[in-house]
Amino acid sequence: MTTRKLSGTTRALSISAGLRALVFAGGALVLQTLSTPVLANAEAAAEALPQPSFELTDPERIAAGKKRFNKTCAGYCHGAEGVGGRAPDFKGRKDLPDAEAFKTIFHGRRGADIMPPWGQAFSPDQIWELVAYIKFLGTQ
């Protein structure tokens, strides 16, 4: 009788351990399957970044970016001419890559420095005009 219980318990433990391993392996497979498209989509989104349809040094586009910047960015966050706001200064800043500036304006930012996303409010060219103006400020 004791042998049978022990044998049944051992068998139940063996089945239980096997089931746990199967569930764990299945969960890992599901996680891998779910994360792969997310990574692929993120990479595709990075590659699909719209390129400016003009030179970022075009004075007319810089002026348009300045006008938009003063209306939407300067008052509360970035300060007049990109200096003195709650966010980091742009004047004299040369370390901001074009694509990173575009993505930040488009998607916004969460964390210590919160910035609203402007991707639904502005066209890609309007965002690139902002980038052109910010890059211009970096030369000042």
- Strand content range: under 5%
Q: Kindly state the mean pLDDT as a whole number?
A: 75
Question: Which secondary-structure class do the elements indicate?
Answer: mainly alpha
Top-tier CATH class of the largest domain:
Mainly Alpha
Q: Main β-sheet: number of strands, strand sense, barrel status?
A: none
What is the second-level CATH architecture of the largest domain?
Answer: Orthogonal Bundle
Q: Give the domain tally.
A: 2
CATH superfamily of the largest domain: Cytochrome c-like domain
Helicity level: 55-70%
Order of helices and strands: HHHHH
Number of helices: 5
- Taking all Cα atoms into account, the compactness measure Rg is 27 Å
Number of strands: 0
Quote the distance from N terminus to C terminus: 90 Å
Shape: globular
Outline the low-pLDDT stretches. 10-46
By CATH, the topology of the largest domain is Cytochrome Bc1 Complex, Chain D, domain 2
Short description:
This protein is mainly α. It has helices spanning 2-47, 59-72, 74-78, 98-107, 124-138. It has 2 domains: 1-48; 59-138, Cytochrome Bc1 Complex, Chain D, domain 2, CATH 1.10.760.
Give an account of the 3D structure:
With about 140 residues, this protein is mainly α. It has five helices and no strands. It folds into two domains: about 1-50; about 60-140, Cytochrome Bc1 Complex, Chain D, domain 2. About 65% of the residues lie in helices and about 0% in strands. It starts with a helix and ends with a helix. Mean pLDDT is about 75; it is low at about 10-45.
